[in-house]
Amino acid sequence: MGTYVVRRLLQFIPTTLGAIFLLHYLTSLGIQLTGNPARALFGDRRPSEAQLGALTEALGLADPCLTRTGDPCVGLYFDRLQKIFLQFDFGINFNRRPVTDIVADALPYTFKLVVIAIIFQAVVGITAGVLAGLRAGGFFDYFVKVSTVLLISVPVFVLGFVVRDIINVNVGNKLREAGTLPDWFTFGVMSPVYKPDYPIASLVVPGLVLGALSLATTARLTRTSILENVRSDYVRTARAKGLAPKRVIGVHTLRNSLIPVITYLGVDFGGLMGGAVVTEGIFGVPGIGREIFRATISKEPSVVLGIVTLLVLVFLIVNLIVDVLYAVLDPRIRYD
pLDDT tens, 322-333? Predict the structure, then answer.
């Protein structure tokens, strides 16, 4: 196991370097095609060459390659790598704020939001999938299939606006006026926007919205896996030996059925970290997604590179953890 983990950690190096180079090239190409983004900071005012040059130098955009369309800016790429991995310097944004501070402030919000979404989709999705798989052809099975199709067909931005405007605003206002429920619920959970006074409660609904689409996929994946494994020879043998039904389902059937589900949840964790931009925008959560959106609109390559580098590392680490969990779930899997 130790050798396997070391080998996977070494694989992080080319993957991370490749992802950073791809993003570096795309951001550089954007500047080459649209011009120096530092000019936009002056608005309608026309800066002197000295002012523009000083600001461009401070923002790390003074390399001549950024004026040549199609130039991959290899030298600038290695300069950025040196600053990131040797000096832990991700640069600054257009307001002269270090990118590390931006990430440090925004990451906890997104992390808590994603954890709520993962717990929601794992608990509810796996439970629904198991019950549907064990009652194939029954009412609950059809209910899970229909409800998951409805969830998958609704875009997250539509679901977010519907939940915020109908439930959090309309229903929430009535509950707040009644004053019969605790404040953490009426002003926290039912708040249409993030409330610093209720840092966890006001993230519950956005987390449920973020995990709703993945919940449907988790439920259907669990159901299919249960249906496949419940007919397996080892399950029939366990039943023939007289084992209790709970042990047959919980130990022999469910553990093997969870392998594809765990794989999906691991991949989805990284996807939710980067894909929370819509949900964070709807509910006013000051997280990573909102910072990426702002940096993209204002063409701040340092912020985009810093945040995406972090997301790549999170994605790789989570997938490593998922691979290690395979051996826990299935004793037949060994990493020698």
Answer: 777 766 666 666
The full set of domain ranges for the chain reads: 18-86, 99-329
Per the listing, tokens 């396997």 go with 4
Residue 42's pLDDT is what?
Answer: 74
Tokens representing 35 are 């011009």
Q: What is the pLDDT of residues 163-175, one digit of tens each?
A: 998 888 888 888 8
Residue 335 has pLDDT above 60, yes or no: no
| Candidate CATH numbers 3.40.50.300, 1.20.120.290, 3.40.50.11440, 1.10.3720.10; the one for domain 99-329 | 1.10.3720.10
